[in-house]
Amino acid sequence: AVERTLSIIKPDAVAKNVIGKIYSRFETNGLKIVASRMAWLSEREAGGFYAVHKERPFFKDLVSFMSSGPVMIQVLEGENAIAKNRELMGATDPKKADKGTIRADFADSIDANAVHGSDGPDTAKVEIAYFFPALNVF
Ligand code: CMP
């Protein structure tokens, strides 16, 4: 089915100047960018986005990293977009990511791991609404 998923190019990848290279991977693999915006998240916005991880030991570092510089946020649309994007990203830990994936090619560590992507249909809905509330208003 045609799905939408939320994608974030994280501060490490924006700083490396590889937004275009990452967009090109989405586009050549059948994912269409149907909304996008650049933002420098506050700790409050980053913490709200990652609220499900609030009790995890890495939460504080995650929030401070995600608010350390600008990010590029987009909605990707396509056939099986959620799984397709996760496949293109590779494993959360770049050391474990398959060759040729975005994280294997552009990420440095599990914290600075270049991209985020929704992990399922329910989170995709919530995450898209978090950054693009207007998309849910018809
Ligand atoms: P992301 O897909 O954006 O979702 C949560 C982020 O937390 C994850 O990518 C990683 O960058 C970061 N993180 C740091 N440590 C861990 C961990 N042990 N397990 C999962 N995510 C982690």
TrEMBL record:
<feature type="binding site">
    <location>
        <position position="92"/>
    </location>
    <ligand>
        <name>ATP</name>
    </ligand>
</feature>
<keyword id="KW-0067">ATP-binding</keyword>
<dbReference type="GO" id="GO:0046872">
    <property type="term" value="F:metal ion binding"/>
</dbReference>
<keyword id="KW-0546">Nucleotide metabolism</keyword>
<keyword id="KW-0808">Transferase</keyword>
<dbReference type="GO" id="GO:0006241">
    <property type="term" value="P:CTP biosynthetic process"/>
</dbReference>
<dbReference type="GO" id="GO:0006228">
    <property type="term" value="P:UTP biosynthetic process"/>
</dbReference>
<comment type="function">
    <text>Major role in the synthesis of nucleoside triphosphates other than ATP. The ATP gamma phosphate is transferred to the NDP beta phosphate via a ping-pong mechanism, using a phosphorylated active-site intermediate.</text>
</comment>
<keyword id="KW-0547">Nucleotide-binding</keyword>
<dbReference type="InterPro" id="IPR001564">
    <property type="entry name" value="Nucleoside_diP_kinase"/>
</dbReference>
<feature type="binding site">
    <location>
        <position position="58"/>
    </location>
    <ligand>
        <name>ATP</name>
    </ligand>
</feature>
<keyword id="KW-0460">Magnesium</keyword>
<dbReference type="InterPro" id="IPR034907">
    <property type="entry name" value="NDK-like_dom"/>
</dbReference>
<dbReference type="GO" id="GO:0005524">
    <property type="term" value="F:ATP binding"/>
</dbReference>
<comment type="similarity">
    <text>Belongs to the NDK family.</text>
</comment>
<dbReference type="InterPro" id="IPR023005">
    <property type="entry name" value="Nucleoside_diP_kinase_AS"/>
</dbReference>
<dbReference type="InterPro" id="IPR036850">
    <property type="entry name" value="NDK-like_dom_sf"/>
</dbReference>
<keyword id="KW-0597">Phosphoprotein</keyword>
<feature type="binding site">
    <location>
        <position position="86"/>
    </location>
    <ligand>
        <name>ATP</name>
    </ligand>
</feature>
<keyword id="KW-0479">Metal-binding</keyword>
<dbReference type="GO" id="GO:0004550">
    <property type="term" value="F:nucleoside diphosphate kinase activity"/>
</dbReference>
<protein>
    <recommendedName>
        <fullName>Nucleoside diphosphate kinase</fullName>
        <ecNumber>2.7.4.6</ecNumber>
    </recommendedName>
</protein>
<keyword id="KW-0963">Cytoplasm</keyword>
<dbReference type="GO" id="GO:0006183">
    <property type="term" value="P:GTP biosynthetic process"/>
</dbReference>
<keyword id="KW-0418">Kinase</keyword>
<feature type="domain" description="Nucleoside diphosphate kinase-like">
    <location>
        <begin position="2"/>
        <end position="137"/>
    </location>
</feature>
<feature type="binding site">
    <location>
        <position position="113"/>
    </location>
    <ligand>
        <name>ATP</name>
    </ligand>
</feature>
<feature type="binding site">
    <location>
        <position position="10"/>
    </location>
    <ligand>
        <name>ATP</name>
    </ligand>
</feature>
<feature type="binding site">
    <location>
        <position position="103"/>
    </location>
    <ligand>
        <name>ATP</name>
    </ligand>
</feature>
<feature type="active site" description="Pros-phosphohistidine intermediate">
    <location>
        <position position="116"/>
    </location>
</feature>
<dbReference type="Pfam" id="PF00334">
    <property type="entry name" value="NDK"/>
</dbReference>
<dbReference type="GO" id="GO:0005737">
    <property type="term" value="C:cytoplasm"/>
</dbReference>
<comment type="subunit">
    <text>Homotetramer.</text>
</comment>
